[in-house]
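Researcher: Please translate sequence to structure tokens.
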Amino acid sequence: MKRRGHISPLIETMRNFELAYDGFSEDKRSRNSVHEFESGLSARLESLLQAYANETWHTSPYRNETIHERKTRVISKLPIADHVIQWAACLHVEPLLCDTFIRRSCSCVKGRGTHDFVDLLRKDMQDNKGTYYYVQLDAHHFFQQIRHDLKKRRVRTKIKDPKLLRFLDEFIDSYYQGLPLGVKISQILANFFLAGFDHEAIALFRIRDDRDKMAYWCDRYVTDSFVTCRTREQAEELSKGVAYMKAKFERYVSEGLRHYSRFADNIVIQHEDKTFLHIVTEMAIMVLARDYYIDVNKDWNVRPVHNGGIDVCGYVSYHDHRRLRKRNKVALCRQVAKYRKKGLSPEEIRLKCASRIGFATHADCRNLLRKLDINMEKRLGTVIRTVK
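Model: Translation complete:
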């Protein structure tokens, strides 16, 4: 893996810090703290630039805030100056690290958010046979589990600029355990932490390169296939003999994982063979625990996609349609009912609930919106097409 140096000279420019402030303050201009920071902005940015250049910057103490939204999370907050200097580094670090991400690794990447991830799932699921079964793995307290020594070692596989490495090391060590939630640079570093695992998983952890590993997992596949045989179709497959089953396993390994996706710490793997998917899951959990010290929540299960769908990123995806997650649907219905009780008109309700409605339109929810009397013909694109 090629490492990149001479990055700090690109960071240490006034233009770079101006762009960093613009990036951070986008959609935050109405905040009082931002207005206060903008008074004497040039002097503040020059001070931050010199602090980076002279390596005198130290991350401010974190102010933690606990949020209870289905899950309890601790969000860490920093002063604006910390965000700006981190953004200045991110403008050059982010493109470098994101180059290592696979296409199906979303979150914390520009243009690859929630909707991009579920669209990739829908594209994958056009292969009905190859995506018949799925497993969903979720890391337990992912950000808190990231070890500082492993994170620093991982960053050094892409960056060799000494000054930038010392800046990143200081940030990583500034938090007592793992990486803080709520800071842009920690999101990028967290996603990069599992980038190597993505490549390993797709290549089936390179068991083909080790004869003993290949023989062990092949025997496991054949044995488990006999033990878990439940249907006539499975019995007919097993009746073709052990040599056939071994050849089948070798074919799966040579193909790799064609339907592997990851959204932050949420991993979705799809495959046509349930037994093979169980073995892949066992490998993945073992590698995450051994090499990354990441524990996976124990509620994972290999199941058919048609039995409940893939519930991720607020949607439930099936082979032929996509639904809105139940709690999101309930929240929309309750919000609409609340405004109806207040006597608002359907158009006023549509404007008040625009965020939830917009989220729902990415699923197959026309019938739901019709029942709620939400007229989507008022959307700008539809109006423009009608006028033309």
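Researcher: Any highlights?
Model: The first strand starts at residue 63 and ends at 69.
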